[in-house]
Amino acid sequence: MSEDASRAWKDQYMLRFPDGMRDRIKDAAEANKRSMNSEIIARLEASFALDGTMATHESEMAEIKRTVNELKIAFALMRSEQKPKP
Length: 86
What we know:
mainly alpha, 3 helices, elongated
């Protein structure tokens, strides 16, 4: 491994897993043909990618909710205008 490559992996963090988690990671790593470390990194990277996706979806959902509320108000006004007056 080159000096630059080893420097990229210099940060280390001791981690405790809940019961069974290590076995799940090991099984997933074997299924994906990578080391446990690579499996953990891949899954962390995927979760960070989801953060951005979730923020986008939350924004889209807020816009949809606003539109639905506007449509409810418009529909209620249309219904009230269509009622025959006595």
